[in-house]
Automatic annotation (TrEMBL), chain A:
Residues 15-251 form the ABC transporter domain. SMART domains: AAA. The lineage of its organism: Bacteria, Bacillati, Actinomycetota, Actinomycetes, Geodermatophilales. PROSITE patterns: ABC_TRANSPORTER_2. This is ATP-binding cassette domain-containing protein. Signal peptide: none annotated. Keywords: ATP-binding, Nucleotide-binding. Pfam families: ABC_tran (PF00005). Transmembrane segments: none annotated. It comes from the Bacteria. GO terms for molecular function: ATP binding.
TrEMBL record, chain B:
Pfam families: BPD_transp_2. This is ABC transporter permease. Keywords: Cell membrane, Membrane, Transmembrane, Transmembrane helix. Its main location: membrane. It is a multi-pass membrane protein. It is found in: Cell membrane. It comes from Klenkia sesuvii.
Length: 261, 345
């Protein structure tokens, strides 16, 4: 999937994280994480519970401020003090809880906080038309943009949340467990959506415990263990046993960097 | 990217036009409100048949005046409840503003100044409620329970519990007796408030965020909305509306009393909930509040005309409240409620 993209290898490095650390009091959540993401790439971020995946992504999304290390976006060092800083650098995130409002309709959720206006009023017609266009472009299957979010299935809610993040035209899209607790058919539509988004040139970081999903959509895997990034491998070099070994740090590992923990 | 009529779109891919199509009017209507409208109509017809005087213009005009204060505060309360909050202090604010406005008039303030002061006093108490709720994280139920006590207490302390008369020569007193097209100023102002409420709730970002906050405040916060400011504004709005109602009540009665509007907050909350606004937040309807306010006041008005014991009114109003909420629960939430009960068992 990576090689099929327009080969502009010079300027396609979107994000570099180098030596990121973060402590909560005496607890060292992140103890030096390196990570890179390229344009149009789907990067799988894996690791056991408590490995620091979610904390790392919150750092990258500006929701949490890191202590040490450097974030470079398009090669330029940046520091995020708030989620809006990260948004300004075109980094979008879909949290596990999706951040949707159940009693608002699909279009209202897509445009929450940036409703198109005519004078002091919300331009509902424009809002629904734009929402419909976004959803149709991404082949999101909902009946109507007037549907209340609370009436949608888990998979539909997930795709609406992703569509919302995509509509900000991000360069980087972080997805935290998008396929957890979804029915099989719904997983398919979410995975397909991830592929579509990456094909538009967005760099996608996918956090998931469903290892089979990684092999479906990812180009590369970064493995975290106890707050450190310990491995980085192309998906073609891995199979599911090897990957499990990398995550659990059991002997069969064929580490590419080796951990010095 | 913006081509909506791509012929290659098969049935599987939803077209943008189909997606944006509005659902039918029936699907969009709040069913609880429809039930209430039916009940209100039935009660209205009942009183019209039971007593000939009910349908007279004088009585209908009187009814509109009675509904006015409940409706004015009810519209604002709809925002508060939709945002997942509650305001128990509106009755006390009404009494405070009525009593203090009357005192200011007695002290020789000009009517125009008193009217501005009345609105500012209401808004001020509302913002006190809002600040403690939104910025200090104390539940609105507790904050407004406290101000319910404090605000009426201050008014009682200030007036010694005596009713303060308003001279009939003042503009405020004239406002209380003024009629236009046969309806009182209170009724007309209530109508304006309803229209403002409709536009605000369904047409503006403020209304959108109030609904969103009631559904999932954290989601709205993450969307970059100043949730605390919106919450404080909603409570400020209900304080302002209570101030307006207090002024109008004092004007109509020709006096301001710290003992007025006892239990007013419960009448208002009942009207809002009767109309179909969810006490859990996230779902609000101004039209419903209009119907709810009408129903509670039609019952009071009609029973008075039938000259039954006045003590029957609260009994019947309360019974209707329970019945209607029960019917609404059966309609939609009862299934969910039963599900929850059985799951726990």
């Amino acid at each position: 999937m990576t090689e099929g993209l327009p080969a502009d290898r010079t300027g396609d490095l979107l994000v570099e994280l180098a030596g990121i650390t973060k402590s909560y009091g005496p607890v060292k959540s992140l103890r030096g994480v390196d990570l890179t993401l390229r344009r149009g790439e789907v990067l799988g971020l894996v690791g056991d519970n408590g490995a620091g995946k979610s904390t790392l992504m919150k750092v990258l999304a500006g929701a949490v401020q890191h202590d040490g290390g450097e974030i470079r976006v398009h090669g330029k060092p940046v520091r995020f003090n708030s989620p809006s800083d990260a948004q300004a650098e075109k980094i979008g995130i879909v949290y596990q809880d999706l951040a949707l409002c159940d009693t608002l309709d699909v279009a209202s959720n897509l445009f929450l906080g940036r409703e198109p206006k005519r004078g002091p009023f919300i331009d509902r017609k424009a809002m629904h038309e734009q929402a419909a266009r976004i959803l149709a472009d991404l082949h999101v299957k909902v009946t109507s943009t007037h549907q209340e979010i609370g009436t949608l299935s888990g998979g539909q809610r997930q795709t609406v949340a992703i569509a919302r993040a995509v509509s900000f035209a991000p360069d980087v899209l972080i997805l935290d467990e998008p396929t957890a607790a979804l029915a099989v058919a719904e997983v398919e539509s979410v995975l397909k959506l991830i592929g579509d988004v990456a094909a538009q040139g967005v760099g996608v970081i996918l956090i998931t415990h469903r290892l089979q999903d990684l092999f479906r959509v990812c180009d590369r895997i970064t493995v975290m263990y106890e707050g450190q990034s310990v491995d980085d491998a192309a998906i073609v070099d891995l199979d599911i046993e090897k990957l499990v070994g990398l995550i659990t740090r059991t002997p069969q590992q064929t580490s590419t960097e080796g951990s010095r923990a | 990217m913006s081509t909506t009529q791509t012929p290659t779109d098969t049935e599987a891919a939803p077209s943008a036009q189909r997606l944006a199509r509005r659902s039918s009017l029936w699907e969009r209507t709040n069913k609880a409100t429809v039930v209430m409208a039916g009940v209100t109509l039935a009660v209205f017809v009942f009183f019209a048949v039971a007593d000939g005087a009910f349908l007279s213009f004088a009585n209908l005009s009187n009814l509109a005046t009675q509904v006015g204060p409940v409706l004015i505060v009810g519209v604002a309360m709809t925002f508060v409840i939709t945002a997942g909050q509650i305001d128990l202090s509106v009755g006390s604010i009404v009494a405070f503003v009525a009593a203090i406005s009357a005192q200011l008039l007695v002290a020789g303030w000009d009517s125009s100044l008193v009217m501005v002061a009345a609105l500012l006093m209401g808004l001020g108490w509302g913002l006190v409620n809002g600040w403690f709720t939104a910025y200090q994280g104390i539940p609105a139920f507790i904050v407004t329970l406290a101000t319910l006590s404090v605000v009426r207490g201050l008014a009682l302390f200030q007036t010694g519990g005596f009713s303060v008369p308003i001279a009939s020569t003042t503009f405020v007193a004239q406002l209380g007796t003024a009629k236009w097209l046969g309806f009182s100023a209170t009724a007309w102002i209530a109508l304006v408030v309803v229209v403002v409420g409709l536009v605000l709730l369904h047409g503006t970002q403020f209304g959108q965020y109030v609904i969103g906050i009631g559904a999932a405040a954290e989601s709205v916060r993450r969307a970059g909305v100043n949730v605390k400011l919106v919450t404080m504004s909603a409570l400020g709005f209900s304080g302002l509306a209570a101030g307006l109602a207090g002024l109008l009540i004092a004007a109509r009665l020709g006096s301001g009393s710290a003992n007025s509007a006892q239990g007013f907050e419960l009448t208002v909350i009942a009207a809002v909930v009767l109309g179909g606004t969810s006490l859990l937040g996230g779902r609000g309807t101004i039209v419903g509040t209009l119907i709810g306010a009408l129903l509670t006041q039609i019952i009071a008005n009609g029973l008075t005309l039938l000259s039954v014991s006045p003590y029957l009114t609260p009994i019947i109003t309360g019974t209707v409240l329970v019945l209607v909420v029960w019917i609404n629960l059966r309609g939609r939430d009862l299934a969910w409620f039963v599900q929850r009960l059985t799951r726990r068992a």
